Amino acid sequence: MAEEGTHNESKLIASLRSGSVHAFDALYDMYYRRIYGYCLNFTKSQKDTEDIVQEVFIKLWLNRKSIYVDESISNYLFSIAKNKLISILRTNIGSPHYEDYIDYCETIGTEDESLLEYKEFADMVERGISKLPPMQQRIVRLSKFAYMSNKEIAHLCNITEQIVKNQLVSGLKRIRSYLDSQDACFILIIILACGLTSST
């Protein structure tokens, strides 16, 4: 059955590339609810979610001739949705954590798992940063929160660009490692706090 579904989707994509409105409508029906649910998990807003989903499918239609997907168009659609989410959430909240937040939530699942609350995720990131050496903390904050280039940071801190790059890479790896180490425990806390029970 899975192979048949993949084959049918491939045929729809081929038809879409040729300008078939029927194929577009069929792909829309296949993915609308999944993309809507994915976006709503983050925006918590029906209007924002509808706007994002609309833009996703508009882009699909406008770029139909350049789409080369052999098996599934899922990754393409969700990639567009993710980029739209990052743009809208940054505009609404003005926080540099959101891109990492969406990436992190994707690693634990977005359809069947409890999503992390953003504020708690941001607090966890801050704790991860606070564990870095002072120089790494400063470089990470200047890069990720002040949006300064490596060259600008090097000039401000009176160090070389290579040192900035090395410290930034090392610091971000340490933060990611800290987040990963908190994963299971943190999700459990969220689940318990929400009064949810595991289905496994």
Task: Characterise the protein shown here.
By secondary structure, the chain is mainly alpha-helical. The protein folds into 2 domains: 2-94, Rna Polymerase Sigma Factor, Chain: A; 118-193, Arc Repressor Mutant, subunit A (Orthogonal Bundle), CATH 1.10.10.10. The chain is 76% helix and 0% strand. It has helices at 2-17, 21-43, 46-62, 74-93, 98-107, 118-130, 134-144, 150-157, 161-193. Helix 6 crosses helix 9 (161-193). The two termini are 26 Å apart.
N- and C-termini, Cα separation: 26 Å
Largest sheet: none
Order of helices and strands: HHHHHHHHH
Q: Please, what is the CATH homologous superfamily of the largest domain?
A: RNA polymerase sigma factor, region 2, helix turn helix motif
CATH class of the largest domain: Mainly Alpha
Query: Helical percent range?
Result: over 70%
The shape, in one word, is: elongated
Give the C-alpha Rg.
21 Å
- What percent of residues are in strands? under 5%
Number of domains: 2
Give the overall average pLDDT.
78
The number of E-state strands comes to 0
Q: Any guess at the CATH architecture of the largest domain?
A: Orthogonal Bundle
In DSSP terms, counting alpha (H) and pi (I) runs of 4 or more, how many helices? 9
Structural class, by secondary structure, is mainly alpha
Low-pLDDT windows of residues: 187-200
And the CATH topology of the largest domain?
Rna Polymerase Sigma Factor, Chain: A
